[in-house]
Sequence to fold (112 residues):
Amino acid sequence: MQPDRQQEKEAAIIEEMLALLQEKRTSLKTIRVGIAMVLAQLSLAGFLVAYSRSRLAALPILHSIALLSAFNLLVFGVALFLVVRPIARIRRANVELHHYQDSLCALGRCDI
Fold:
């Protein structure tokens, strides 16, 4: 194989690897946002429980508790989606990165 053509293939593989690493970084940032959403939700719920004036009289505020619980469930579902989906993307990117590393080794560049 010609040296120029081999260098072009190596450059293309390295560019693909860099794109996959960028995708992994983006996925990790998405996971961080999902975790922050869950923590904010738990902090708000803890604050409301700690400063509730009607601890024993739950019946007058039952509709508010039900609404808050439904909202918390919705936010938790979105946060769960923001955590689980990027994990699958990271796994897929890792598999593809290993394939690209094998391709580079086949071209004689196992040092990367």
User: Anything to note?
Assistant: Residues 22-50+58-106 form one domain. Residues 3-50 form the longest helix (48 residues). The CA atoms of residues 34 and 80 lie 7 Å apart. The chain has a mean pLDDT of 85.
